[in-house]
Design brief:
The chain has 197 residues and is of the alpha+beta class. Helix content is 32%, strand content 16%. Strands 1-2-3-4 form a four-stranded mixed beta sheet, with helices on one face. About 9% of the residues have low confidence.
Length: 197
């Protein structure tokens, strides 16, 4: 019995050591397999350094397309129309990316998110919206796109039309919808028996 306890303890120590070794092991690639950030490339190649927002938009769209096509798995799906994207400006302050479609493969969504994350970290893109099928191209380019939003602003801040991350955007009021339920806790005791839990 004592020998089994020693063996079990030894096996557990080795297992924990292996886990620690694997979790602390470093790699040369970052999480997304891309540049460390958008500023790591020359300013001529970096769409985020472009002062004119229309030129920034065009360069960013070309750069995202190039990065997608540099990834063989994403390229095949992009070229076959499984997913598409649109870069658009919000006001004259920042850019957002709209994504539509499907992506298949173990790491393909992670790879695509990594491409976009590079530009979000540099505040070149403040919002990515995953839109419903049939949304792109937009019929009204200035209309707000609904879908799952990934913002470059830290919660609880939000991306405002002026390109800043603020708790409340100027000119956009707070939600003033009042609760009209006159019995907000009417069902609170339904799961009790004779008033006791």
């Amino acid at each position: 019995m004592n020998k089994e306890l020693v063996r079990s303890l030894l096996a557990m120590i080795v297992f924990v050591a292996v886990l620690i070794g694997l979790s602390c092991g470093g790699g040369t690639r970052n999480d997304d397999g891309e540049d460390a950030d958008a500023s790591s490339t020359s300013s001529a190649d970096n769409p985020c350094s472009e002062a004119n927002i229309d030129q920034r938009l065009a360069k960013l769209e070309a750069r995202i397309t190039k990065k997608i096509k540099d990834n063989s798995q994403l390229k095949e799906q992009f070229d076959n129309g499984r997913f598409k994207f649109n870069v658009r400006k919000v006001g004259n302050s920042y850019l957002e990316v709209l994504l539509e479609g499907k992506i298949g493969g173990k790491d393909d969504l992670k790879d695509l998110a990594g491409i976009l994350k590079v530009f979000m970290k540099s505040k070149c893109v403040l919002r990515v919206v995953f839109v419903s099928p049939g949304t792109l191209p937009l019929t009204d380019p200035s209309a707000r796109a609904d879908g799952f939003e990934w913002m470059g602003c830290e919660y609880p801040l939000m991306a405002c039309p002026n390109g800043e991350c603020l708790s409340m955007c100027p000119g956009i009021g707070a939600n003033t919808n009042a609760n009209t339920n006159s019995y907000p806790n009417a069902n609170s005791d339904l799961n009790t028996v004779n008033g006791s839990p």
